[in-house]
Amino acid sequence: MSAVEKSVYRGGSRAPHIPYDPDLAEAIAERVEQGETIKDISRDEGMPHEVTICRWQDNHPDFANRVIRARARAVHAIAEENLGIVRACRDSADAQRARAMTDLLRVVGPAWNRADFGQQLSVQHDVRLSLGAAVESARERAQRMTADAPPTMIEASADQAPSAPAQ
C-alpha cells in the first residue's frame, strides 16, 4: 500500500503511519485557520487520519506551533461567521442556531485563543510592610543562632592563638 493509499485509509481501529509531508501539513494548518477541525479535515479524501496528524504534531514542533497559531486565528473566523448568522436571523430556528454558535464560541474561544477571548482578570494588590520591624526580628534571630552555635574553626583557632606581645 502506497503512502497516499495509507493516508486515506479509513478501515480498522489503528491509523496507518505515513511520512510527514510539509506541504500537506501546511494545507491542514490553513484549513484549521479557516475554522475546520482536525477530525473534519481527516475525513476528506487525500488527508491523513487524525491520529497521524496528531503524531505529526508530536514529532514536528514547527507543525504543532503552526496549528496552535492557526487555531488562534480560527477563533476570529468562527466569531465572524457567528456574527453573520446572528445578523441573518429571520426566525426562532435561526436564533437557536445563532445561540448555539455563540455558546460554542464561549467554549472554544478561550481554549484556542486565550489572549483575545479568555477572561481578563484585573488584580489590585496593596501591601504595607514595616521593614524596620522585619530587620530587627532578623537581627534577633541571627543573634540567638550565633549564641547557641558551636564556635567555627576560625573562631576556635583565634581563641587558641597566642596573643601578640605588647610593645
Topology:
Elements: H1 3-7, H2 22-33, H3 38-42, H4 50-59, H5 61-87, H6 92-112, H7 114-117, H8 131-148, H9 153-160
Helix pairs in contact: 2-5, 4-5, 5-6
Describe the protein.
With 167 residues, the chain is mainly α. It has a domain at 3-117: Homeodomain-like (Arc Repressor Mutant, subunit A, Orthogonal Bundle). The protein has helices at 3-7, 22-33, 38-42, 50-59, 61-87, 92-112, 114-117, 131-148, 153-160. α2 runs parallel beside α5, α4 (50-59) packs across α5 and α5 (61-87) packs antiparallel against α6. The longest helix has 27 residues, at 61-87. The radius of gyration is 33 Å and the shape is elongated. Residues 1-14 have low confidence and may be disordered.
Brief synopsis:
With 167 residues, this protein is mainly alpha-helical. It contains 9 helices and no strands. Mean pLDDT is 78; it is low at 1-14.
Number of strands: 0
Q: What's the total helix number? A: 9
End-to-end separation: 103 Å
Radius of gyration from the alpha-carbon trace, in angstroms: 33 Å
CATH H-level superfamily title of the domain at 3-117: Homeodomain-like
* Share of helix, binned: 55-70%
| Largest sheet report | none
| SSE string, helices as H and strands as E | HHHHHHHHH
* SSE-based structural type: mainly alpha
Short descriptors:
9 helices, 167 residues, Arc Repressor Mutant, subunit A, mainly alpha
